[in-house]
Write a structure and sequence with these properties.
Blueprint: E1 2-6, E2 11-24, E3 27-31, E4 38-51, E5 56-69, E6 72-77
Parallel strand pairs: 1-6
Antiparallel strand pairs: 1-2, 2-3, 2-4, 4-5, 5-6
């Protein structure tokens, strides 16, 4: 799936991933390929992305919004 993590200042990550963890405001969200459509608010925490090669990266955010649709994850982070 394609993942974009964007802040008002710059783009933190763009690329393909096999797994994404999001700190949802109602609890953690694990996103895999073919996930159901979803829009969620995010709380302060870590967004973790496992890329196609299995390497995991982590990004600290102060909240934001995430959209999952058609194997694309967009995180608008604060």
């Amino acid at each position: 799936m394609h993942v974009e993590i964007i802040t008002p200042e710059h783009q933190l990550f763009t690329g393909e991933a096999s797994y994404v963890f999001l700190p949802g405001s109602a609890g953690g969200l694990g996103i895999l390929n073919n996930h159901a459509p979803l829009i969620s608010s995010l709380k302060k925490g870590e967004v973790r992305v496992k890329d196609a090669q299995g390497k995991e990266q982590s990004f600290s955010i102060n909240g934001g919004t995430a959209e999952v649709l058609n194997n694309k994850v967009i995180v608008l982070a604060e």
